[in-house]
Amino acid sequence: MSTAKTGLRVEHEIHKRRRSRNVGLGLVLGGFVFLIMGITYVKLTTQNAERAAEIRAKEAAEAAAQGTETSSTEEGSD
User: Fold this and answer.
1) CB 35 within 8 A of CB 41
2) 9: CB partners within 8 A, 6+ apart
3) Residue 60's Cα: distance from chain center in Å?
4) Each residue of 32-74: pLDDT tens digit?
């Protein structure tokens, strides 16, 4: 009985090396993708936090400005 008929194939050393190299390269590329995704996530999170702080400060300043306008208007109407 030949090995071709039974479906058993002996893998050549070159193919083993190629597969090993391809798996290694795939892992490196996958790691690079996750690194880029992580950096992007951190940048966006930081920017969103800074933007939220700016918005809160602006709203607080507007509320304080309206509060002083309201109190000065109330004082003037007495």
Assistant:
1) no
2) 3
3) 30
4) 999 999 999 999 998 888 898 999 999 999 998 888 776 655 5
- DSSP one-letter code for 11: P
For residue 10, the model assigns a pLDDT of 82
The model's pTM is 0.56
Alpha carbons 77 and 75: distance in angstroms, whole number: 6
Please name the residue that has the structure tokens 């700016």: 54
- Per domain, the residue ranges of the chain are 12-77
H or E segment and range at residue 63: helix 13-77
Q: Tokens 């109407």 — which residue?
A: 77
Determine contact, residues 25/18, Cβ cutoff 8 Å: no
CA distance 9 to 18: 17
